[in-house]
Design a protein that fits this description.
The structure holds 2 protein chains of 2 kinds. Chain A is mostly helical. Chain A is about 75% helix and about 0% strand. Chain A is extended, with a radius of gyration of 25 Å. In chain B, α1 packs antiparallel against α2 and α2 runs antiparallel to α3. In chain B, about 45% of the residues are buried. Classes of the chains: A mainly alpha, B mainly alpha.
């Protein structure tokens, strides 16, 4: 029974890790940003599934709601609003750097392989039995007791983000009243010159 | 055999590297923005893995706050992208390499 459960966890990890890496590579390889956004949603969903296998259901739900829901919808809206076209292929610059890049990547992989195969410091026992760390109640308790100040600072940050986004995306430009007035008066003047 | 902590860390490193490569090779601002989101998610995976394996809730609180910051970053960043597009009629970063409108 326990053995079966472990096997299922391994299979789930391999499945969702493969899905995440595949979607990430597809996102980088896509030339159309809209397809890239869809692939990124795939990465987010598979990461949420991995969070569930890590016994963090609240974070998994928030991942789906905020990342795959709110943020990516915003990104897709902007892509469609701006009517982004596909990136065109361009000639590669600095072709001589490719051998150096290959060499450095080989060194990096060698280091990673060394760490994976020769450093055997196993951490604490994995939480495979019932744990209440990831539940909403424990996260809420931590958020409102020990981490109350970061929580409040986060709310101020969100307020600043609202104001900043409204200021940036307004049609009149960055400056509040003067810039828009000047622009309109100039067009009026140009119209007058044209009519003359 | 159960999933080890190092597996999750390796997956996170791979995702982070893909994000870095994307930021370096992409020229579209929105694609670069999405690669930054991917890097944030890779770090989140590290936090959640450590939090789960050490049975400490702090890592998941960090993830919560990182998600809030990512939401704020998304709203302001997309506002900046819209402003750049209005001023330059292009989303190519090479066209917007001067910090002047």
């Amino acid at each position: 029974m326990h053995r079966e459960r472990r096997k299922v966890l391994v299979v789930l990890f391999i499945l969702f890790a493969g899905l995440a890496v595949g979607c990430a590579i597809s996102m980088v390889a896509q030339r159309n940003p809209l397809y890239g956004a869809i692939s990124l949603i795939g990465v987010f969903i598979s990461l949420a599934c991995l969070y569930v296998t890590l016994a963090a259901p609240f974070i998994a739900a928030v991942q789906v709601i905020i990342y795959a829901g709110a943020i990516m919808v915003l990104v897709v809206f902007v892509i469609m609003l701006l009517n982004v076209e596909e990136e065109e292929r361009r000639p590669m610059r600095m072709r001589s750097l490719i051998p150096i890049a290959v060499g450095l990547a080989a060194i990096l992989f060698a280091e990673a392989a060394f760490i994976i195969f020769f450093v055997q410091a196993s951490p604490a026992t994995p939480t495979r039995n019932i744990s209440d760390v990831g539940l909403t109640s424990s996260i809420g308790a931590g958020l409102f007791t020990h981490y109350l100040l970061p929580f409040e600072i986060t709310s101020i940050l969100l307020l600043m983000a609202i104001v900043g986004a409204m200021t940036l995306a307004r049609r009149g430009g960055l400056l509040p009243a003067g810039a828009g007035d000047r622009g309109s008066s100039r067009t009026v003047k140009e119209d007058a010159e044209k009519s003359l | 055999m159960t999933p080890q902590l190092s597996w999750y860390l390796a997956l996170s490193a791979v995702l982070f590297t893909i994000g870095v490569v994307g930021v370096m090779i992409k020229r579209n601002v929105i694609s670069m923005f999405m690669c930054i989101e991917l890097m944030l998610n890779a770090v989140n995976l590290t936090f959640v893995a450590f939090s789960s394996y050490f049975r400490d809730v702090s890592g998941q609180l960090f993830v919560f706050i990182v998600m809030t910051v990512a939401a704020a970053e998304a709203s302001v960043g997309l506002g900046i992208i819209i402003t750049i597009f209005r001023n330059r009629e292009s989303l190519d970063v090479d066209d917007a390499s001067v910090l002047k409108l």
